[in-house]
């Protein structure tokens, strides 16, 4: 009886709209009467509340980039159900499984919750002391202190928390093109005006042009002052990696202007070139003006596990002398209950010698993929950047629309890419390829692209 009633309710719920006056079939009516009454409640008319919408969200004219890519992919699949399998070189989501030693840490963390002697509940919002200490020592070689590390559920979330801390009254600077989160969270926080239709840029954000003409590093001398400078290296989406000299210039600029640099080092483990900094704290003077966000997502295949960290040295202070770390600690203790105990156990395993060796193997695999993609797209007649010390390849379309090229490749090669325009106005005319696909998929994608562009 219960199954029949559920089936009836499911059938009714599947309708796109329920019209109360529409007659039910005789069988359905008799079944409903026989197996308890089913209340037929008409859908309420659409109403609005008296609550005003946050006007800042109205400034965001489009949805977040990566869900939009997924929507277009799904629309194509719905219209072409018999198409060959789609290969994704789009969102930077890892595809290799979590390695054995690191996985054992996650398993241990989970099993401890099932034992009375090892069970743990709420922990420190800033993260477990052992993990903070291991991050400071193993990844920063003592350049930072353990209590300057805030463990979290990922760098993306921490960028939003930093924006919450900085508030609406600051001016932010971003690389152009850049990871969309920096701009979108600035808009949500009320730091910006509207988009200028002529430039596709938000008022009150400083856009730092990064393109082939300046080796993807901005001319800092020509930039207006910004309170907070978001800078990512290795860069998403361009694949560019800042040199030591460039980062020294960035720190010197921030100190001169009285700015704070938020350095996104999420792709640091891909750096293989000797002498290229993996952390902004390798630069003298950075401790007084820099914050660093990082994540295990790309390190260890934790994109679905969620574990990251933010480093705020004690020396970074506001104009009134208040330590920035103090306010971020207030955000974390108020708006976050700490990363999962299970996940932090996995993080500890990541930083064992065996775990670090596994991470290096993962990085090598994806870097090999990047070489395959870069050589492949260059064989199609395009100029490409990145792919060295970085999992991203940035393809120059020589003035062609990036969304048009995205559609062309999806519809004719069944390969998903990312249009550069989604990373800001400076990304138009470029296409990003991600090396996080399986190696055989990267090779097949190159074959399809060569076939598409052979003419």
UniProtKB/TrEMBL annotation:
This is LL-diaminopimelate aminotransferase. Keywords: Aminotransferase, Pyridoxal phosphate, Signal, Transferase. Its cofactor is pyridoxal 5'-phosphate. It comes from the Eukaryota. InterPro entries: Aminotransferase_I/II_large (IPR004839), DapL/ALD1 (IPR019942), PyrdxlP-dep_Trfase (IPR015424), PyrdxlP-dep_Trfase_major (IPR015421), PyrdxlP-dep_Trfase_small (IPR015422). Residues 1-17 form the signal peptide. The keyword Signal applies. Transmembrane segments: none annotated. Coiled coil: none annotated. Residues 85-449 form the Aminotransferase class I/classII large domain. The lineage of its organism: Eukaryota, Sar, Stramenopiles, Ochrophyta, PX clade. One of its GO terms (molecular function) is pyridoxal phosphate binding. One of its GO terms (biological process) is systemic acquired resistance, salicylic acid mediated signaling pathway. Gene3D superfamilies: Aspartate Aminotransferase, domain 1, Type I PLP-dependent aspartate aminotransferase-like (Major domain).
């Amino acid at each position: 009886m219960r199954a029949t009633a559920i089936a009836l309710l499911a059938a009714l719920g599947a309708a796109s709209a329920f019209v109360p006056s529409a007659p039910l079939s005789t069988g359905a009516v008799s079944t409903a009467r026989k197996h308890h009454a089913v209340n037929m409640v008409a859908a309420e008319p659409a109403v609005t509340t008296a609550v005003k919408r946050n006007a800042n969200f109205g400034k965001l004219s489009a949805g977040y980039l990566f869900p939009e890519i997924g929507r277009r992919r799904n629309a194509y699949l719905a219209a072409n159900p018999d198409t060959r399998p789609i290969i994704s070189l789009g969102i930077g989501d890892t595809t290799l499984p979590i390695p054995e030693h690191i996985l054992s840490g996650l398993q241990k963390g989970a099993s401890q919750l099932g034992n009375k002697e090892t069970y743990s509940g709420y922990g420190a919002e800033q993260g477990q002391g052992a993990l903070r200490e291991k991050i400071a020592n193993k990844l920063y070689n003592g350049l930072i202190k353990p209590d300057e590390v805030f463990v979290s559920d990922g760098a993306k979330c921490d960028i939003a928390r930093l924006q919450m801390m900085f508030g609406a009254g600051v001016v932010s600077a971003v690389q152009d093109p850049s990871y969309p989160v920096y701009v979108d969270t600035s808009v949500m926080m009320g730091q910006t005006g509207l988009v200028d239709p002529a430039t596709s840029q938000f008022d009150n954000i400083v856009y730092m042009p990064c393109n082939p003409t300046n080796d993807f590093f901005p001319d800092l001398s020509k930039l207006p002052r910004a309170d907070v400078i978001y800078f990512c290296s290795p860069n998403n989406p361009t694949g560019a990696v800042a040199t030591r000299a460039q980062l020294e210039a960035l720190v010197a600029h921030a100190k001169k202007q009285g700015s704070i640099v938020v350095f996104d080092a999420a792709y640091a483990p891909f750096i293989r070139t000797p002498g290229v900094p993996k952390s902004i704290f390798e630069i003298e003077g950075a401790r007084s003006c820099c914050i660093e966000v990082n994540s295990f997502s790309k390190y260890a295949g934790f994109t679905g596990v969620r574990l990251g960290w933010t480093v705020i040295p004690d020396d970074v202070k506001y104009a009134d002398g208040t330590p920035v770390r103090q306010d971020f600690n207030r955000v974390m203790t108020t708006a976050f209950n700490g990363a999962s105990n299970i996940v932090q156990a996995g993080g500890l395993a990541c930083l064992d010698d065996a775990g670090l060796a596994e991470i290096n193997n993962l990085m090598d695999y994806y870097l090999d993929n990047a070489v395959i993609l870069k050589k492949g797209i260059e064989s199609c007649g395009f100029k490409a950047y990145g792919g060295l010390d970085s999992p991203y390849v940035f393809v120059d379309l020589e003035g062609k629309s990036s969304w048009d090229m995205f559609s062309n490749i999806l519809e004719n090669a069944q390969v998903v890419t990312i249009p550069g325009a989604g990373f800001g106005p400076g990304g138009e005319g470029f296409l990003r390829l991600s090396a996080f696909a399986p190696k055989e998929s990267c090779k097949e994608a190159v074959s399809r692209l060569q076939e598409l562009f052979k003419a």
